[in-house]
């Protein structure tokens, strides 16, 4: 019975990952369609260490171009990934993407406050846009990016990798199934100790601190575990050492209320030992993901002690393949630009509450 | 090295539990002093199932009297514990305790809002008062009880069992040692699904809901893990089903700020699967107690995976023996009436914040 239920849960979770099948099925499917060409826009650590290696593991995507202002980086990438000279762009020459049929999607991996500029440039060049989270640093800028991509009749997706991760899918299923009883409280946290340099600490580029960078994971979790939108938030921020935190908060905590009565308490921090967890407490049971937001090794357990175990997946490959699938099949993405906007609207309200010292009500469009 | 450090930690923790020693030492010490006579005031489930059995395991205490308005209960207790007829009182005849030299301490286990009445009556009869938590339901009533006991030149203690529990002692030591780096965030929660009847759901007797009953554990933990007093709190409460929650909140969440910059998020709930944990996150490490507030089976683990394991102790025996020791040795109690007042002042501020929807600053006396 336990084994059967676990199998069903796994099947349900895996069904959401269309790229996973038998080896034969995958090979047949892959042979019947061309892979979408991806241009990586921004060649920082995330692109270099995580996204590019993951891209090589996708079923539906191939790396065909890079966008960088660093000729040195471009040269390294060209050699490493076999990218031709015509596949190298700077941020100022992105209009030239319009003439490159090998690029279908531009994956924007630049700092938060540059997403509008780079995503819009990609859309104007006729490319679909896949964008790192947060979508942008304000509601207005998110709306402008959404409009720019829509005007180009292209697709916009946000890189919410946990939306494709089996433990998170099972946690959301469980929380919303009623098996835990009415969901009462969600407690989620993501923190680490940030390096003393880099754009994440610069307000102009990051738009904010750990709330935008890490809190968005906790916020997303509360939204997909409840299946609801928060209608009330109350936030507080803390200051950190002057050496690192002259521009952004060191930590943030927030509470939220959801329409059905569920409440959440979440936190994000740049002055924290590496810590990430989600706990969802219902009236008759609870579940914990801990660690919750890592690239691998996520563990889930119910309050009765039963773990929910799934093999690690490549979360970045999964999100890229899903976006490619949506484009190829013409189906909606669960991580659309509008979904990215929903989070930013709430994150901005949390900052507003922290500044004013009063709770903020949120009206959803 | 690990074993040695664990031994040191255990020794430090156990040293705080003066009643624990070798069997020989205990026997010698016990023989050299008379046990203090305890009267249990209020014979509900807690007294019957937990406190009385624990009292039998103490080194310094003996059960010599009961205070109840139920003749039937009194008869059962007399028989079970060999209590003489002169050791049976009603709430109205507590003045008679003055004539009973077999009673040194009255342990008040009645509903929260009766602590002032019963504790004051005990003090007027010349008895020391050990009181279940919360000390009372308002700052003023706490102060009145403290004054009443002080006027009688007797001792007042509050039954904070976790203050004597080795995992909590080690967690506090670790959090305050700097080993985790500066302490950034504490996350603590205590909830269960309350029975649909009983005084805990009646505002007149309980003074409030899960905040006073369960939240006090989480609040205490934030205070002894930081060694500081919160200076700012922000709370929210939720309503529950009308059948149970016409008078008190169903759940409460609160945030607090401490002077050194540590922030906390805590929760307490009567509509929750049984859940209790404490997580303290420093800049370079963290610790978790989970379960944290049970009578037994508490488990502690550091973020590096090292558990801190101690044998279960009888927490009620420990707190009673410590209070008896303080009386016998004339030393201060760490769970004084003033300590009880500190918590109530903060709990009341959390309710105030939840009502007003605005944070409340706390000034400590």
Can you write the helix and strand succession of chain A as a string? Answer: HHEHEHEEHEHEHEHHEEEEEEEHHE
Q: Could you name the CATH topology of the largest domain in chain A?
A: Dihydrodipicolinate Reductase, domain 2
Number of helices of chain A: 11
What share of the residues of chain A lie within helices? 25-40%
Largest interface: A-B, 40 and 40 residues
Q: Which spans of chain A of ≥5 residues are poorly predicted at pLDDT below 50?
A: 1-22
Give the total of beta strands of chain A.
15
CATH top level of the largest domain in chain A is Alpha Beta
Query: From the coordinates shown, what is the CATH architecture of the largest domain in chain A?
Result: 2-Layer Sandwich
Evaluate the radius of gyration of chain A: 20 Å
Q: How large is the share of residues in beta strands of chain A?
A: 15-25%
How many separate domains of chain A?
2
Strand order of the largest sheet of chain A: 14-13-12-11-7-10-9-8-15
Q: What oligomeric assembly is this protein in?
A: homodimer
For the record, give the distance between the C-alpha atoms at the N and C termini of chain A, rounded to a whole number: 43 Å
Q: Structural class per helix/strand content of chain A?
A: alpha/beta
Shape of chain A: globular
Return the average pLDDT of chain A rounded to an integer. Answer: 93
């Amino acid at each position: 019975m336990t084994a059967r239920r676990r199998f069903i849960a796994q099947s349900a979770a895996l069904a959401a990952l269309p790229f996973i099948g038998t080896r034969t099925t995958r090979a047949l499917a892959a042979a019947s369609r061309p892979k979408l060409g991806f241009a990586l826009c921004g060649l920082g650590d995330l692109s270099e260490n995580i996204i590019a290696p993951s891209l090589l593991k996708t079923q539906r995507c191939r790396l065909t171009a890079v966008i960088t202002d660093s000729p040195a980086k471009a040269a390294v990438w060209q050699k490493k990934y076999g990218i031709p000279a015509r596949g190298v762009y700077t941020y100022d020459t992105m209009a030239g993407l319009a003439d490159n049929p090998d690029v279908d999607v531009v994956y924007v991996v630049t700092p938060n406050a540059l997403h509008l500029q780079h995503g819009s440039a990609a859309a104007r060049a006729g490319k679909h846009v896949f964008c790192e989270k947060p979508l942008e640093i304000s509601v207005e800028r998110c709306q402008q990016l959404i409009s720019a991509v829509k005007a180009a009749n292209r697709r916009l997706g946000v890189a919410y990798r946990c939306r494709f991760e089996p433990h998170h899918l099972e946690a959301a299923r469980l929380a919303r199934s009623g098996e835990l009883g009415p969901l009462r409280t969600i407690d989620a946290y993501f923190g680490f100790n940030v390096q003393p340099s880099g754009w994440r600490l610069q307000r102009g580029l990051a738009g904010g601190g750990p709330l935008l960078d890490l809190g968005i994971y906790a916020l997303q979790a509360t939204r997909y575990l409840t299946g609801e939108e928060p209608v009330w938030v109350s936030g507080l921020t803390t200051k950190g050492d002057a050496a690192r935190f002259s521009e952004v908060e060191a930590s943030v905590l927030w509470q939220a209320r959801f329409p059905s009565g569920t409440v959440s308490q979440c936190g994000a921090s740049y002055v924290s030992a590496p810590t990430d967890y989600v706990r969802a407490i219902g009236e008759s049971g609870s579940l914990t993901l801990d660690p919750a937001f890592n690239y691998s090794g996520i563990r889930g357990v119910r309050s009765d002690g039963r773990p929910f175990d799934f093999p690690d997946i490549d979360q970045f490959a999964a999100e890229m393949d899903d976006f490619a699938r949506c484009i190829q099949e013409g189906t909606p993405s669960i991580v659309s630009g509008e979904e990215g906007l929903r989070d930013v609207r709430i994150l901005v309200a949390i900052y507003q509450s922290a500044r004013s010292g009063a709770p903020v009500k949120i009206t959803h469009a």
